[in-house]
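Allow me, if you will, to draw on your knowledge of protein folds for a short while. A protein sequence and the structure tokens that stand for its backbone fold form the material at issue. I would ask you to consider whether the tokens describe a fold that such a sequence might reasonably adopt. Thank you for your consideration; the sequence and its tokens are set out here:
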Amino acid sequence: MKGLHIQLSLSYPGLTMAVDLALPAHGISVITGPSGSGKTTLLRAVAGLESGACGRVVINELLWQDSGQDFFLPTCRRALGMVFQEASLFPHLTVQGNIEFGLRRVPVALRRISMSQVVGLLGIGHLMERWPARLSGGERQRVSIARALATSPQLLLMDEPLAALDEQRKAEILPYLERLRDQLDIPMLYVTHAHDEIARLADQVVLLEAGRIRADGTASDLLTRMDLPFAHGEQAAAVITVTVVAHDAGYQLSQLDFSGESLWLPQAGLGRSQAGESLRIRIAARDVSLCLTPQSDSSILNVLNVTIRAMSSDSPGLVMVELEAKSFPLLARITYKSVVQMKLEVGMRLYAQIKSVAIIKHGQELVGPGDC
């Protein structure tokens, strides 16, 4: 069966890890959790770098490890690429030389990714003759990813690849990671604790705590679960896949549909998106307001019928409300005073007004104006 099947256990002083995961054979599966939860240890164990790890690892029907059969494929024979916090490029080789080093690790007959494809996906064609010392942090990391991809891996492991970058450099590299997710048929295990990276990149999310799996599932499901840390605080948001239906040239708006509901967004934020194209959008909880009756005299265009699924105190004076809109979860972060005045309770039907929607498409993020 295609996919990633990981059953591993490992004991260290201060950490006992035991995981059993079945992850898809494509997209980005994010491994997250607090410091010391075993995120990096899990990645190292999958790579065969933890000699004490016992269990079974199968990547797209290729057996890498099975303690029951006394079978262990060494790291050098596992078809994987690894990217760490620091790029660790060879300083004596140019960008082209670093990538060619990765290519040489794979026989020509087994190469599934070409030099030109790697260079194009990561936008580094203009850097090929440069030395690593002349690259910015974001450029070095893109070259590091290119070198890993040049090995035509069955699996790409990324251990907090953006942690060493400032916000500007992170913003530069995120679109390229989205491009890899959307255009390559290579599964990725991606370790991070950054909420924004999880919301933008993750297809699947695995939450580790003290070496155990607290939760795993799709990003759309886990990011809105009230019993998990994702659905709390200023960055709480729902992630939704929508379909572009039409563009209104007169008003410069675009209609997006999901689960039988429609959203109207500024057309400029969608770039060259065509009707029928699927997009991933993020609706921040802080940008959702609630009302008991539909407002016909409001400038807000996006009004959804919703049902309250749960409520939880979020911070002093603020409440997080979990909503269901046509079987799809949303979040609204409102004041406790509003909860009392509106007499909100679980199971109540009401209306959600989406004041501002962040759209993510190949790294282009638009925050719509307040009247959209």
The helical segments are 39-46, 95-104, 115-122, 137-149, 167-183, 195-201, 219-222, 336-342. The chain has eight helices and 22 strands. Residues 84 and 246 are 41 Å apart (CA to CA).
